[in-house]
UniProtKB/TrEMBL annotation:
UniProt cross-references to Pfam families, sorted A to Z: Sugar_tr
Cell compartments where the protein resides: Membrane
Organism this protein belongs to: Triticum aestivum (Wheat)
Major facilitator superfamily (MFS) profile domain mapped to chain residues: 1-506
Protein name, entry field: Major facilitator superfamily (MFS) profile domain-containing protein
Gene Ontology cellular component terms for the protein in this record: plasma membrane
PANTHER family, sorted: INOSITOL TRANSPORTER 4 (PTHR48020:SF24), PROTON MYO-INOSITOL COTRANSPORTER (PTHR48020)
Amino acid sequence: MIQFLLLGVISGALLFIRDDFIELQKNTTLRETIVSMVVAGAIVGAGLGGWMNDRFGRRPSLIIADVLFLAGAAIMAFAPSPAVIIVGRVFVGLGVGMASMTAPLYISEVSPARIRGALVSTNGLLITGGQFMAYLINLAFTKVPGTWRWMLGIAGFPALLQFILMLTLPESPRWLYRQGRKEETAAILRKIYPANEVEEEIESLRKLVEDEMVLEGSIGEQSVFGKLKKAFGSKVVRRGLMAGVIVQVAQQFVGINTVMYYSPTIVQLAGFASNDTAMALSLITSGLNAVGSIVSMFFVDRVGRRRLMLLSLVGIVVWLAVLGSTFLRAAHNAPPVSDVETRPFANQTCPEYNPNVHWSCMDCLRAASTCGFCAHEGNALRPGACLALNNETRGVCHADHREFYSEGCPNKYGWLALLALAAYIVSYSPGMGTVPWIVNSEIYPLRFRGICGGIAAVANWVSNLIVTQTFLTLTKALGSAATFLLFCGVSFMALIVVFLTVPETKGLQFKEVEKMLGSKNYRPWKRYHPEAPTKGREIGVAML
């Protein structure tokens, strides 16, 4: 939860950081860098997290992540320039990367198999809850002097609370058993399982760990490179890693973090100029994301991981198509720029504007020198003025009781775009929002779970970085409509790839997942039945 609170709070803070630093108003790449540097830090953090999980345990990794969260929040709150904000974002990113792959792993290893999926989904709910809290924090400080400093700094307090609570929690029993700390393992399992199941679980864990340690054996596997070599030499790990990496990459390439990081900006692209309005409407999308996580908790162990992801992707494709089409319609109906409306602003006119050439609001916003559209007083859909983009012209426009648009143009389709955006979130959250993390907590052999989880998390964050570092640039180069239609096409490809490569792990013990992946008749799109060997076959015919 903490990591996504710190991630989500930048979406609203960015609007005010942009207004405070003039260089950000004219440089979308710098804005993208402020957002995406947390992702760059997360890539390194996820890689370190995989090694630290295996070397020091799950609990110490989470504690170190909390320290990084707190340090990053403090740096950003007191930052005198965009460069220092970026440094703070990197600190936060290191913690985010470590926590993102450690938290679901820790939860899955201290959870009984029958409710493991629901508990990992609870982590997903807390993640979306953190995002929702981030928007509430943003709204709470919109009228306070130093707006964005409070937004970024206050997010450090939950990290401090989590740090204190983690000191009271136990280590993963599976990791402890592998370290030979059997008495500690037994004590923890007695708190997790009913008394009549404890001995059976200890015996199952003993057999699993001993079998794995026999397979490990070599000295080379004590190093990261040795473990990687052995991991890729195993058919089970290769198949599991392919599925795990694919769902993590797909989770990002469907475009979700354009919404999470740039939600208020997207609302402004849809035609709502006010910062306060943009953040208030963004709160709705964040709330829907949290509701979707609750839905996932109830259905992930009933419907299944694979089916939930496929249904989620179908909805994503449909609603991204609707969203892109709506932006396309809005662009074609943007209000024109009027010489009569522009002339009173004299020296504040956009340098590229030529009254003899027909311009719409969209042409104004695409001007090379970076300009904004000052809407008509009383009716934003009527012709307006095209002005140079700076705080002075923004203030003059507002003083004349007009709205100033710098991201998107006024249009009558804005509410339809918001409805499509909300439906996209509802489709994403129960499936692609939480299930990829569940799959990654279940699909790797214990001996390789830390290193494989780290690889998958790095793939997730690299994909995240690509999306966040290019979104604003794409909207400027291609337009909002083409950008969302591009995400729609990528999501359709993800639907096909997930169908062909990701198996169902619902209700399977870890050893049963290994057996499924190692089967010579393995087909990801067919259901595996653990009891199948007694019937003479291992693969069922259920397609989902």
